[in-house]
Amino acid sequence: MFGLDQFSWTAKWSPYFFLFLVAVALLYWLAVEKYRHKFADSGPVTPRQKLFFLSGLLMIYIAHGSPLDLMGHLMFSAHMSSMAIAFLIAPPLLWLGIPGWLIAPLFMRWKKTWLRFLLNPIFTLLFFNGVFSFYHIPALHDMIMTNYWLHTAVYVLLYASALLMWWPIAGPLRELHGLSDLKKVAYVFADGVLLTPACALIIFANAPLYDIYSDPQLWATALGYCVPGDAAVFLEKFRGPETFALIPPIHDQQLGGVIMKLMQELMYGSILFYILYHWYKSENRSAPDMSLDPIDLDADGNLKRA
User: Fold this and answer.
1) Residues 284, 278: Cα–Cα separation, whole Å
2) Which of 38, 132, 222, 303 could join 145 via S-S bond, C-beta 3.0 to 4.6 A?
3) Are 169 and 195 in contact (CB under 8 A)?
4) How far from 4 is each of 11, 238, 242, CA to CA, in Å?
């Protein structure tokens, strides 16, 4: 698998991260089943909601615990695939799986002024797309990928911004976002437009932008944060990123931008379809019944009296 047989099973499958996500799933089950009665206005959680939440955790594991995470340190296209799964697919699944009563106490602790600001659709759009775009500025990206604590902090920020970005669409407390279906459509379109410049920069670049996928020393340093080991040992053993390259770096970079854009279009297209379908159903439910009552005539053809 792309030369990954040279890495240990632990490096490829991140068992500790898997156990962490299992613990999160267990806490979720305890909250929505065993201790549900401790939450005000709690109600039963449907199997569909549970499936959504567990699917969100699975997507996070695929992005950051499976061999895809390791490949993301070897190939830019794998890195962008991981980003798309982690920040475009996992967050809405998590929100769809969380009942409103479970997080209502957390939101009640916030001042309304802060809530209105953090959950404002304009802020959530600019926050996520701004963080994502700045992260992929070449100089910043190389610096972040070669600094462990900065890398960790940026990924926490990306997850926070992604959860906020998806809140107006999938957030469980509808009274805190309240976008109409028409505004949700506009929101998704705007989100797609704001992410386009970062993808275009990557796709249409004429030269490799990210040194960690072409400079052996930087590549080995970044790899050392994913796989325990010394950069000098990696250089001696693997020589550099070209050991794992299936295609030239510029083509790998362009492929990464295309993958991100395609996965974005697929995800946003699915969300738009759901919103429009929901809109159609709600309009039909609220439409007045214009059909006439059947005319009841007697045997002589005269209208019966009530």
Assistant:
1) 10
2) 222
3) no
4) 9, 12, 14
Checking phi first, is residue 229 left (phi over 0); if not, alpha (psi -120 to 50) or beta?
Answer: left
Q: Tokens 């709690």 map to which residue?
A: 42
Q: Which of 25, 67, 73, 74 is nearest to 50 (CA)?
A: 25
Strand partners, 181: none
Structure-block tokens of residue 17: 């991260």
Enclosing H/E stretch for 273:
helix 249-286
DSSP state of 3: T
Joined together, the tokens standing for residue 205 give 């670049």
Q: How far apart are CA 121 and CA 128, in angstroms?
A: 11
* Token pair of 64 as six digits: 């950051």
Backbone dihedral angles phi then psi of residue 136, each to the nearest 5 degrees: -95, 10
Which residues face 204 on adjacent strands?
Answer: none
- Rounded CA separation 241/272 (Å): 39
| Longest Cα separation, the chain | 104
CA separation for the pair 144, 78 (Å, rounded)? 17
Tokens read off for 207: 């030269």
Rounded CA separation 60/23 (Å): 14
Tell me the pLDDT tens digit for each residue of 161-202. Answer: 999 999 999 999 877 766 888 899 999 999 999 999 999 999
**Residue appearing with tokens 């909250």:** 31
How much is the pTM?
A: 0.88
- Residue-wise pLDDT for 79-131, tens only, equals 999 999 999 999 999 999 999 999 988 887 776 778 888 899 999 999 999 99
- The string of DSSP codes covering 70-114 is HHTTT-HHHHHHHHHIIIIIHHHHHHHHS-HHHHHHHHHTS-HHH
